Amino acid sequence: MEGDIRKVLVILGSPRKKGNSAALALRAAEGARAGGAQIEIVDLARLDIRPCTACDMCTKGTGEFCNIRDDMQAIYPKLVGADALLLASPVYWFTYSGQLKVFIDRWYGAWNTQPKFLKGKPVGIILAYGDEDVDKSGVFNAIHTFESMFSFLGAPIAGIVHGSLSDPGDAEKDVRLMQAAYELGKKLA
């Protein structure tokens, strides 16, 4: 960490510019900022991030994260340099969004180049889903995937905020969820 200022990287994984997961993530960013953190927000849907091609160039010891020349190249240093991470996504087809999945798959390059790139860094997770039944919504599948992944990477999950939010704007109407997101942001700071 630079001085006492913690860098929190906020990743928006929704294709909707003003979706519910994004609204909750922005509220969490406010909480982190109020806690003294420096915030950077990355909106995956507005970037060109292509899927991993399994070329394994990142395993060759060149020091390069990935040879795919897309917007991920600019995100790797931010990911490695962050002190904390916040991932926000809607739940689509029983797990997090495709935008977030492609982004996370590209961590393979970071992990092969710097295996401890997230070790010890707290992670916050925000998930919005349409079905009111948490079992049928798929949110538990997404949470389980995050738990397994971050356990493997040695990154503690600082908290998970999730809720049934169907229509754009529903998040802002849910005072409890907005407050939980704010507190998660403060915790990451």
Would you write up a description of this structure?
There is one protein chain. By secondary structure, this protein is an alpha/beta fold. The protein has one domain (7-188): Rossmann fold (3-Layer(aba) Sandwich). The chain has eight helices and six strands. The protein has helices at residues 20-34, 72-81, 98-105, 107-113, 134-137, 139-153, 170-173, 175-188; strands spanning 7-12, 38-43, 84-92, 95-96, 123-129, 157-164. Strands 1, 2, 3, 4, 5 and 6 form a six-stranded mixed β-sheet that branches. The radius of gyration is 16 Å and the shape is globular.
- Please summarize the sheet with the most strands: 6 strands, mixed
**N/C terminus separation:** 11 Å
Can you give the helix content as a percent range? 40-55%
- Total DSSP helices: 8
Instruction: Evaluate the radius of gyration.
Output: 16 Å
CATH architect. name = 3-Layer(aba) Sandwich
Proportion of beta-strand residues: 15-25%
Order of helices and strands: EHEHEEHHEHHEHH
The name CATH uses for the topology is Rossmann fold
Tally of domains: 1
The CATH superfamily is Flavodoxin domain
Average predicted local confidence, pLDDT: 94
